[in-house]
Amino acid sequence: MKSTTRKYVPKAVRLMDQVREVLRFHHYAYNTEKSYVSRILQYIRSHYQ
């Protein structure tokens, strides 16, 4: 039986642009997108200083 999950390959080069593309592909709300991006940036800044 064939799986029906959608797979998206981002076209952007930068990490955060890829995150935004994938979230938009899966129809996440704009506020959710902002929240996820903010949390990812916080993580990157705190762990890779």
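^ that was protein a. below is b, sequence first then the tokens
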Amino acid sequence: MKQGRQAVLFISPSVPLEQGIGVERRAFQHLCALASRHDVHLMITGQPKPRAEAEETWRTLPASITVLGRGEPPDPQGHRLGSHLLWELHHPPIPHRLPAVPIPAAWPESLAATLVFRLKSTPIWRELRRSGVATGRLVLDLDDLEALALRRRIAAERDILGREKALALRLRAARLARLQREMVWRADATLVCSREDRDRLIADRHDPARIRIVANAPPELEPLAPRRASPGEPYRLLFIGALGYSPNIDALQWFVRDIWPQIRARDGRRVELEIVGYGAGADVRALGRTPGVRVTGEVATVTPCYARADMLVAPLRWGGGTRIKILEAFAIGRPVVATTRAAEGLPVADGRELLIADRPDDFARAVSRLLDDEGLGARLIANGRELVARMRGIPQARLLAAIRGEADPDGADAAGDRPADGANG
């Protein structure tokens, strides 16, 4: 341990990656903030993805690392039990007990605090406590209220889930809600991404003084010049996200089925859609057979994708947390069209930092507005960059304050707890 620096434990469900998917980026954000003031011991609860950037990251992470490699629980889809409901009854979404957690040889004598990232990391904290480890102050990060996200999925897919699977998912949501309530009650501080999620926890009778907003930090990216399509060159829309993530799969299928034909038909213009991200399955790859749609998949860096795009689209219909990709588009200088759900939790307003549309015809119309009106796009980009500038450093400062049990720093309203109060421009 360095002189004067206290040790903290960070239990993360994934490898922290600067250029990864949302959960990996938030983990990286936390790790860097913690390492700036503390000696960090990192436990990764799931099996790391076999990705090239993960290998490079191992050599540079400012922490001692223990990989538990427990992986994700198997999906009940097609399981031999044959029943989704029976599976849920016998396999809780997050186990209450685990085998003994191995304690690394270089473990510190005492921890000032433990940051537990997402509910799936809570069994590790429990087992460490049972083993007699002094885990210090408990800070729980619920960047995604998982029970809420699951209930939204049930509502959005009620016509395709079937009665039995819907009932099984309701049982899973109820169990997640019960675990969330217990862990928020036990935590010294609980972190959420947005004012909306904080209000939800307070409505569930939790102490407002212990619920803190730590927004997703905007990525550090060099702004790009606006794209100007040459005569005869198509306009390009960009979707970026984890392509194995159910809300993203639903968003893409909905967009390509219900919105894309309207965009392509408007004014006879040539428009293309590029889909970028890790983990594309057959359902996403099949979208590449649609005229004008290209599934690029995983890339080493997203900057070239933004450079050839006119705008980012975020057509999510369900899910939780906040979209780091929207902040990324703001930082790099591309306008955004998003649904209300995709923009939820961000201090933005329709017509100020982005355009918001929830119906297929409205979404297609918003895309056309941006393609037709360069001045509108420029205003959205300027306002988005201003928001990102205001947010710099605030999430990291708020995390450190929560770890140390200190009051939130000043100027935090730009980091997610300012309401979206109407449009301008």
